[in-house]
Structure formats: C-alpha cells, structure tokens
Amino acid sequence: SDPSSVNFKMSRFLAVWFAWTLGSYLACAAAIVAAFGIIRVLSLNEDHWFGLIFVVLFGVSLGGIQAMILSRRVSRSAWWIPATVAGWVAILPIVWLMSLVIPEGAMDDSGSMITLVITGATTGFSQWLFLRPYWRHAGWWIPASILGGLALALAFGPVITSMYELSLIGLIPSACTGLAVASLFADPQMAER
Asked: Which helix (H) or strand (E) covers residue 77, if one does?
C-alpha cells in the first residue's frame, strides 16, 4: 500500500474523530450555558430544572451537530437527532423501574454510574437502528456507546461535582463513538444512500 495513501486515510480518520469529539463537547458546553440562561430568564429553581433543561438542550444540540457530520456520508442524517433523543428518553422508564425494584439507598453510590452505562446502551441501540442501513459494521455502534457511558461513569464516579465534570458528558462518550464514526467514514463498502 502506498504510504501517502495510508497517511491520507489516517489523517481523514483523525479529522472525523476530532470533529465528532469537539462538536459533541461544544454541544454540551452550549447546552450548559443555554440551560443556565433559560433558568435565569424564567426565574426557575436551578436545583429542580437544570437537569431536565440541560438534557433536552444537549440531546437536540448533540444530535444536530452529529447529524451535520454524518450528512457528509449518510442521507437523511436529520433523523439522527430523534434517534439520539429517543435513546436518552428510553432511559427514563428503566431508571423508574430500577427505583421500584432496588431498595432505597442500595444504589446511592453506583446508581448514576449504572444509569450512564444503560444510557450508552439505549442511545447506542437507538442510533444503531439509524446506522444499520448505511453501514455493514453498524453493530459496533452499540458497544462503542456502552464503552462511552462506562468511561464517563469511571471518569467522575457516582456524582457530578463540578462544571468540569458536567462538560465531560460531551467529551468522553463522543471520543469513544467518534472512533466508530471515523471507521464508518473510512469503510469503502459503506452504502451511501
């Protein structure tokens, strides 16, 4: 294989990974700022409303930025946004069921960590449904998403204690899934539809 061809493929792989990861991190930062802005403008109680507002804004902005990146290789990429949001929403009944089954206090230290891993699984599955018509190796998306949730859980433990840790929500999982996206872009047999 021609060394310049290998270098081009590697630089393209890294460029896609970097764009995916940076775009996701910026979506998170924008959602944090916007959530605080909405809370301030509407005079809402931050403790009660920040999580919900942040999750909605981050889900839409993350899906939007990632859809723009995917649009270079995948048709109908706007469907990535509802696929992302659906994966996040799917975690809500699971957490509710967990709260009914697991005794109170039993998951205090690990509950959020388990939730992040399950969120990786539900979001990965939802996004896989979108990717599978386009990419023959789309099955790798779910483990990459689970790995992203696990890596995030291990990075900050059971409780988010700072804005820095909150911003990692946009960085760590996308660094993991970015490897899969870069592979998708590198796959010469990927069906472009």
From this structure: none
pLDDT for position 190: 59
Tokens 């859980």 found at = 153
Task: Measure the CA–CA gap between 11 and 14, rounded to whole angstroms.
Answer: 5
Write the DSSP string, 123-187. Answer: HHHHHHHHHTTT-TTGGGHHHHHHHHHHHHHHHHTTS--SHHHHHHHHHHHHHHHHHHHHHHHH-
Q: How far apart are CA 60 and CA 66, in angstroms?
A: 10
Give the pLDDT band (50/70/90) at residue 22.
Answer: very high
Q: Six-digit token pair at 149?
A: 């949730």
Those residues whose C-beta lies under 8 Å from the C-beta of residue 53, and which sit 6 or more positions away, are 35, 38, 39, 44
User: How confident is the model over 142-147, as a mean pLDDT?
Assistant: 96
Report how far residue 128's alpha carbon sits from residue 87's, in angstroms, rounded to the nearest whole number. Answer: 10
- Asked if residues 148 and 177 have their Cβ atoms less than 8 Å apart, the reply is yes
Geometric angle at alpha carbon 30, from 29 and 33, rounded to 5°: 90
Instruction: Report the C-alpha gap between 119 and 142 in whole angstroms.
Output: 11
